[in-house]
Amino acid sequence: MFRRHRGVQLITMSKTLNIRKFRQASLHPGAQSGVSLLESMIAILLVALGLLALVGLLVRSSASLGSATARDRAGMLAASMLDQLRVNTPKALTENPAFVNATVTSGNCVTDRASLNPINRWRGELACALPSGAGAVDVDPSSRRAKVTIRWDDSRTVGGSATQSLVMETRL
After folding, report:
1. Are residues 147 and 167 in contact, defined by beta-carbon separation less than 8 angstroms?
2. Strand partners, 53
3. Model pTM?
4. Which residues does 25 contact at the CB level (< 8 Å), separation at least 6?
5. Which pLDDT tens digit goes with each residue over 7-38?
6. What is the Cα–Cα distance from 123 to 138, expressed in whole angstroms?
7. How far apart are CA 109 and CA 136, in angstroms?
8. Could you give the CA distance from residue 34 to residue 30 in angstroms, rounded to a whole number?
């Protein structure tokens, strides 16, 4: 049936049509039995799989964040040592053992480093800031170039190498 209402044409359905559909659906009550339970179980399964994937993503991003933090610390410590070499260029160029040691070794993580010479103080900072942190400083007096090498253990990273290294070079 069509009915006009304020200039708009409306389509209305007969009430008898709705009653017929209700009667037809009620004649076969077992046809829909258990469907909503199955749909609910599938929805719960999909939500559980989504949450599991989200947890895996969080674990992976946490490991990557730890690796990035360690790399950032290594870069700051290398730049710190290069700054110390620039400040003390005459001592560094004479290959003073307080500033230059080309062997990559680790220091001890001690809180009172004031009495240590600069290279051992720096290695102590490496040991405190990085897991298994070790470092070396190599200066070539003829070319006036200094190279700082830092190594640390990064085995926590998913798919990463256990030993990471960072090398910074500068001209003094």
Report:
1. yes
2. none
3. 0.65
4. 32
5. 555 455 544 455 555 555 555 555 556 668 88
6. 14
7. 16
8. 9
How many Cβ atoms are within 10 Å of 85's Cβ, its own excluded? 21
User: Between 24 and 154, where is the model more confident?
Assistant: 154
Cα 82 to the center of its chain, rounded Å: 27
Q: Which of 157, 150, 18 is nearest to 73 (CA)?
A: 150
Reading the block at residue 161, the tokens are 């190498």
Q: Helix axis angle, 35-87 relative to 118-129, nearest 10°? A: 180
The rounded distance, in Å, linking the Cα atoms of 36 and 79 is 64
Q: Which two tokens mark 74?
A: 């290594």
For residue 152 the two structure tokens come to 């640390």
| Total residues found in the chain within this entry | 172
Alpha-carbon torsion 56, 57, 58, 59, what sign? positive
User: What gap in Å lies between CA 110 and CA 101, rounded to an integer?
Assistant: 20
Please tell me the number of Cα atoms within 13 Å of 139 on its side-chain side: 24
Query: What's the CA gap between 43 and 98, in Å, rounded?
Result: 67
Provide the Cα torsion 34, 38, 44, 49; round to 10°.
170
**68-99 pLDDT per residue, tens:** 888 999 999 999 999 988 888 888 888 777 67
